[in-house]
Design brief:
This protein has about 625 residues and is mostly beta strands. Helices cover about 5% and strands about 40% of the residues. It has four helices and 34 strands. The strands form seven sheets. Strands 1, 2, 19, 20, 21, 22, 23, 24, 25, 29 and 30 form an eleven-stranded antiparallel beta sheet that branches. The longest helix has 8 residues. The chain is elongated and about 115 Å long.
Amino acid sequence: MLKRAVLGAVCLFFALSFLSFAQSDLGSIQGFVKDPSGALIPNSKVTIHNQSGLERQSTTNESGSYTFTNIPPGLYTLMVEASGFKKYTSSANKLDPSSALEIDASLTVGAASETVEVSATAVTLQTESASVQKLISREQIDNLELNGRNPVGLASLVPGARGGNLSGLNFNFTQGPSNFNGSRNPENLITYDGAPATRTRSNGTSLGAADVDSTQEVQILTAAYAAEYGRTSGAQIRILTRSGGQQFHGAAFEYVRNDAFNANTWTRNHTPGQAFVPAFRYNQYGYNVGGPAYIPGKFNTNKSKFFWYWGQEWVKYRFTDTANWEVPSNLMRQGNFSELLSPTNFFYGKVVTIKDPVTGVPFPNNIIPNSQLSPNGLGILKAYPQVNLSTPINGNQLFYITAPHPQDQRKDTLASDINLTDRQRLQFRRNNYTFDEYQPLDGTPLETPKYFHRPNQTNSLDYVFTISPTIINEALATVSVDDVYIPVDAAHFADRTTFGINYPYIFPTGKLIQNRIPTANIQGLTGLTGNPYPSHSSGPIYTFTDSVTWVKGKHTLKFGFYWELSGENDNDEINVSACPTCTNNQNGQFSFTDTRSGQPGTGNAIANTAMGLFDSYSELGQRAYTPF
């Protein structure tokens, strides 16, 4: 259920020499038409068109200026015609997303049948807006190396960006740089084709990764951008999807990394049990294709009305998880602590005497009598992974294990552009992102394995209607979904009763897993954990924007509204950890220390566990579904 709605106020923007642009990443082209003396020429016919069949016409006003608003980024050809002058053509003018491009035309006296052709030159300084921004073009995306091929990392190239690691492998969820010009990460925003792609519950993390081969451009707005963007006070990373054109294009690719190409590290070669290259398999592959949608002689015969693009990418990542734990010895699991009488024992490196908590007298031979042992306390010690090392590592660790850790990712990218009429244009974009993972050693190794399943997506539908050469309406609707499913591996999930744990619950009803092992923080041992899973959360975001741009003489007026409905619907226990005794485990959490916080004890936390002498116990009741 969604509980939070944001309604943008109606805004009015005025501009004398520049424009503000819609959240859909559209831009504008404007300029002046002049004669050889520099005088402005009114009533000149100005036409622009791009490679996707979009064509717009206008005339210069009494000041000799023209303006085309709400047009998609790309390469444009501009043509100017005026009585008594040669036809003027300027080609390859690149319009960036959410930007203004100024093209001034200087006409030459002559017959209209003659043409003056000009090639565009790179704009070294953007003067049409005060916005501080940078564009990463398709050419740069092709030439720059990205470990994991996640285009959001390109935001690190912007001056003022801080944080992030372009050299590290990062192919899935990320926030990009953590700061821009001092902004905090929750203040930043990532969008895919105008659709918010930042999770509602995390500090700026993306809900998925765009396909870098399907990315046309990445624009980063860092400061002083138009008020209509709103929603965030920090930077915006705006990723635009490629579109089809009048010709068919396609590609296929695969990037491979494999342990067969790797050497073992010096550290591993000198660590017992690690004198081998760990398993590592990384395959990233996919394809993309795009072009016009047409039926020869029947539909879109000139290939200027309907264009499409489709791309897919997969990642198969296989690496090795390792876990090394401080676990109780086999004797300790029986209440026998005689090993601690040796001054050289590897647990503490000194003699540790176990005392009767009632009398304060040491137990004979450091062995707790069976009559004073707690079945549930012993059960907690037995729930620890079994000792599998005869010689401890890293001081006192008697357990070491490795297990394969698989991650799978799939991206689907769909784009379509339709020129409905000469005055109406429709654009649709969908990014489908699925991430699956198995974590065999999560929590307590081999006892609480879990899965991740995240079928996320962003969708945007943009409609532009040229009501007249000076009035243009744009409507943008988006839907973003962030679903997180974390089920457990029930077939390999530990049952507390198999270790002899059967203490009654404070809240006996509503347990998702009735016999999940408890969490136990025992001084001197690695913490035992039952984990808070299974869980599920969802963070949907719905937005709708409508804006009208009106060019009136020398002025451009823009007004509209922004509406958003978003939320975070949680059905989990993971956030219940706000204090030392709080727990995220429905099945209970124990704390055992050497001193027992001043209460009578044996003098040793592990022995206190064997006798059931805990410092504190916490337990969650029935899990609440918390929509907001």
